[in-house]
Specification:
- This protein is an alpha/beta fold.
- Helices cover 44% and strands 14% of the residues.
- A seven-stranded mixed sheet has the order 1-10-9-6-5-2-4, sandwiched between helices. Strands 8-7-11 form a three-stranded antiparallel sheet, with no helix packed on it. A two-stranded parallel ribbon has the order 3-13.
- Helix 7 links the parallel strand 5 and strand 6.
- Helix 3 runs parallel beside helix 12 and helix 4 packs across helix 8.
- The two termini are 30 Å apart.
- Pyridoxal-5'-phosphate binds next to helix 4, strand 3 and helix 5.
Amino acid sequence: MLKLFAHIGIRQAKNIAKLILGYPVSYPSLGSMTLDKDDVIIARSWLKDRPDWNNNELVSEYEKQFALWNGSKYAFAFMGGRVALSACIHALDLNSGDEVIIPGYTCVVVPNAFQFAGIKPVYSDIELETYGLDASLIEDKITQNTKAVMLHHLYGLVCRDYEQIINIARKHNLKVIEDCAHSTGAEYKGIKVGNYGDAAFYSSEQSKIFTTIQGGIAVTNNDVIAEKMREYYNQAPIPDDIWIDKQLNNVIFNYYAFKHPQRWLLGDIARLKYSRKQLISTTHEEECGIQPVHYGRKMSSPIAAIGINQLKKIDHYNSIRRKNALRWDEWCNEKKYKKPVVIDNSVPVYLRYPVMVEQQKKINTSWASKELGVQAGVWFMSNIHPADRPVNGCPNADKAVKQCINFPGLLK
Ligand SMILES: Cc1ncc(COP(=O)(O)O)c(C=O)c1O
């Protein structure tokens, strides 16, 4: 606590100096930018009244609303995209000893979900236009144990080889999972991504398109797969009240720390107030590939209430992201960097705007705040970010690890 006080004291002294000299005291945050005062009011009311947090009526309502908005037949809400992925794995009957082809450029919780089920993730390289799986490399990875392909739509872009990947999977009788953790609301041929494969998952973690601090949704349009998804869902426990309390407090904390216009000051006050309640997305044990004890929980009603409110605003915020992308397009044109590719018939949502820059510019991103007034994001810093485990045979992914930075989709 003493260390925190000292840290905050130094930062606020610097902030005051910056204010006096006319420099900016905060930059657009890389997460929680869809949290508003209305979400804080909802979180506070659940904390105050403490009705039955385990009554799952609102969760069903959230699932219904998400399914309708997403154009999916079935939706099941969990406490993370990673858990929703585990539900997809169960629903598709993937079992110990099976292999699944996944991009060699992802978040560690993705291979973890497969490994927790005894499945071998087989990494395949990405292309550098949308950072999705390169379809031309997939067939070489198929063995007699391969049962599925997991494609992803990264940074809010629709992946370049979307249809080809699905066609290859169909040809080889493989199931398709879509990782839509970054791309909730993106569309291809007028249909939301996640509806082309057999099952898909979305994330409402704090750095995503919409947020419930932690959260994820699994969807499918197939009745048989849905039954198995429900089987996983029915055995999933609801988080205990201590966890729900923490999560609601994190809605309030994140609003003041990352969204409020005076976050440079109120964020630090919130850091002191909520220091014991802060949640982290990926624990050290998950980075090491260990399954946390509390893995696999479904969503609770208070968090679904936040989700329902976020869902009301998601189209509005996604349209702002698309407008803001024009600024980054211009910057790429001016600086002669390649823009991310928006494939024909697709509508991206630009969770972040990815650009390949010189390696030095990723090692030290301070130039971005000086030149552009934003923080540059660094997803991903390793092939299975943030874990530093080797992934062989993915040269494009290795290149993206060294050179791909991203700009925020939301600027205020
Ligand atoms: C590409 C990708 N897939 C899946 C996930 C998992 O989502 P969640 O954090 O909701 O478990 C993440 C990240 O956080 C991610 O970046």
